[in-house]
Design a protein that fits this description.
This protein is of the alpha+beta class and 411 residues long. Helix content is 23%, strand content 38%. The chain is built from seven helices and 24 strands. Strands 5-4-10-1-2-9-6-7 form an eight-stranded antiparallel β-sheet. Strands 15, 19, 21, 22, 23 and 24 form a six-stranded mixed β-sheet that branches. Strands 12-13-11-14 form a four-stranded antiparallel β-sheet, with helices on one face. A hairpin with a 5-residue loop joins strand 4 and strand 5 (50-52). The chain is extended and about 85 Å long.
């Protein structure tokens, strides 16, 4: 890359900051090579879209100076350019290159976010779209499991600031809360089933019988489900096997212990029965779902929760306070290291106990501590956590119109 201040070489620039101003989106660009003039057409190498430079300005603090051209080494502002932070611009479409983007650390905290008033949903969406373009450390996604919009950022204060900006700038007052952790339900020990689905209503009836066993998978596979066809002969025609598997998969979408996804089990279909006239795909699908209900009722179930691998770094004088705080969060300490007055601590902590830890760590280390965490595995939840989930689910069931709770057998 050549930094000569002329137009000998093709223009290359990096959009490093976005700002919403009176004239629309203001894009700050650092010119690394070549020259860009007012009226030029530039290309975004990430989206392959071309944009015309209608206005070009050089910024001096809060003052803006209109210019006709900028050269390598200059920082300028463009108006009305649709892009994201870290995008590369060139003036020749065939230049297939991308500059190294700014370093964006991974978010350290996530919280659910939603507008208090549904009528403000459009303004809420506009604000979220703008903020995620401007700030690459602020990320928002829809969690299909918890049915919540989850915002991730660099701390609770970071997310709180954006919640306030949504209220002030877009009149979309919103609430932040603790997102629901993606728990799982799983069997503790094998359970046999023998279920007959039979229905006669005048015309063609429904008939399907399934026999087999449902057993827990190995701990390293407790986020998966398996279906195994062990039938022999023609008691269950092979064309109905897929319907039985579909019924099993449908039942695993929501367990009956606390309403979470079922995982870590294997459905072993060993035998069954069919009728020459009344059997159908739908009959065997319902038979499989009935067999699962039977196992939900008779089997011993447990709740699994995600466990995170956590690494904490802080000055050594705060080591006792950090360990004490982690013990309260049911952490399992795996090791520590000491380097130049700082210590690094490695542990595993249930994700459900990690919310609010960023604020606690700053408080007990005078703002000098930091941590990172990543998903490790699913493990059986602590007894108190299981009890809290069961009580909460039971209250939700009772609160529904005409609802009633149905206790399940728990290990």
């Amino acid at each position: 890359m050549n930094s000569a201040r002329d137009n000998t070489f093709p223009f290359i620039g990096l959009a490093f900051k976005l700002e919403a101003g009176r004239f629309g989106q203001l894009t700050y660009v650092r010119v690394y090579q070549g020259c860009m003039k007012k009226g030029d057409t530039i290309y975004n190498t990430r989206t392959a879209k071309k944009n015309k430079v209608s206005r070009l300005a050089r910024m001096h603090a809060n003052e803006m100076e209109e210019v006709n051209e900028v050269y390598a080494g200059d920082i300028c502002a463009l108006f009305g350019i649709e892009c994201a932070s870290g995008d590369t611009f060139v003036n020749k479409g065939q230049l297939n290159l991308s500059m190294e983007s700014i370093y964006v650390p991974d978010p350290v905290i996530s919280m659910s976010i939603k507008p208090l008033n549904k009528s403000n949903a459009d303004n809420f969406a506009k604000g979220i779209a703008r903020f995620t373009r401007e700030d690459p450390t602020f990320k928002v996604k829809w969690d299909a499991e918890s049915k919540e919009t989850v915002a991730s950022g660099m701390g609770e204060l970071h997310l709180d600031v954006y919640a306030q900006r949504l209220d002030k700038e877009y009149s979309a007052k919103c609430s932040l809360g603790k997102p629901k952790v993606a728990f799982r339900e799983s069997l503790v020990q094998p359970c046999q089933f023998d279920y007959l689905h039979k229905k006669q209503s005048g015309g063609q009836g429904q008939y399907g019988r399934v026999t087999g066993i449902i057993e827990p998978l190995e701990p390293q596979n407790n986020t998966q489900i398996e279906f195994v066809d062990e039938t022999a002969g023609t008691n269950i025609p092979k064309n109905f096997i897929l319907a039985i598997e579909k019924g099993f998969n449908n039942s695993c979408e929501k367990g009956q212990l606390c309403g979470q996804i079922v995982s870590g089990i294997r459905f072993r279909l060993q035998d069954g029965g069919s009728h020459a006239v009344d059997s159908s795909d739908y009959s065997f699908q319902l038979a499989a779902e009935g067999a699962m209900r039977e196992v939900f009722s008779d089997g011993a179930w447990q709740i699994l929760e995600p466990v995170m691998s956590v690494e904490i770094t802080a000055p050594q004088e705060f080591q006792g306070a950090v360990i004490s705080g982690l013990n309260k969060r049911n952490a399992i300490i795996q090791g520590t290291e000491s380097i130049d007055g700082f210590f690094a601590l490695y542990c595993e902590v249930p994700l459900n106990d990690m919310f609010g830890y960023a604020t606690e760590l700053r408080s007990c280390t005078q703002g000098k501590g930091e941590f990172s965490m990543e998903y490790s595995r699913y493990c059986p939840a602590l007894p108190q956590t299981q009890k809290d989930l069961l009580d909460s689910h039971e209250q939700e069931q009772e609160a529904r119109p005409g609802g009633h709770s149905q206790k399940r057998k728990k290990n």
